[in-house]
Amino acid sequence: MALKRLTSSPSFPSLPNLLFKSLSTPRSFSSASTEDEKILTIETSVPFTGHKCDPPSRTIDTTPKELMGFFHDMALMRRMEIAADSLYKAKLIRGFCHLYDGQEAVAVGMEAAITKKDSIITAYRDHCIYLGRGGTLLEAFSELMGRRAGCSKGKGGSMHFYKKESGFYGGHGIVGAQIPLGCGIAFAQKYSKDETVTFALYGDGAANQGQLFEALNIAALWDLPAILVCENNHYGMGTAEWRAAKSPSYYKRGDYVPGLKVDGMDALAVKQACKFAKEHALKNGPIILEMDTYRYHGHSMSDPGSTYRTRDEISGVRQERDPIERVRKLILAHDLATASDLKDIEKEVRKQVDEAIAQAKESPMPDPSELFTNVYVKGYGVESFGADRKEVRAVLP
Amino acid sequence: MAAVLQGLGAAAAVSSADLLSSKRTKLAWVKSMAERNGSVLVGRTNRRFCGGLNRRAANVVAAKAESPTSAAGSKQPGHEILLFEALREGLKEEMDLDPHVCVMGEDVGHYGGSYKVTKDLAKEYGDLRVLDTPIAENSFTGMGIGAAMTGLRPIVEGMNMGFLLLAFNQISNNCGMLHYTSGGQFTIPIVIRGPGGVGRQLGAEHSQRLESYFQSVPGLQMVACSTPYNAKGLMKAAIRSENPVILFEHVLLYNLKERIPDEEYVLSLEEAEMVRPGEHVTILTYSRMRYHVMQAAQTLVNKGYDPEIIDIRSLKPFDLYTIGNSVKKTHRVLIVEECMRTGGIGASLRAAIIENFWDYLDAPIMCLSSQDVPTPYAGTLEEWTVVQPAQIVTAVEQLCQP
Question: Exposed end of chain B (fewer CB within 10 Å): N or C?
Answer without folding.
Answer: C
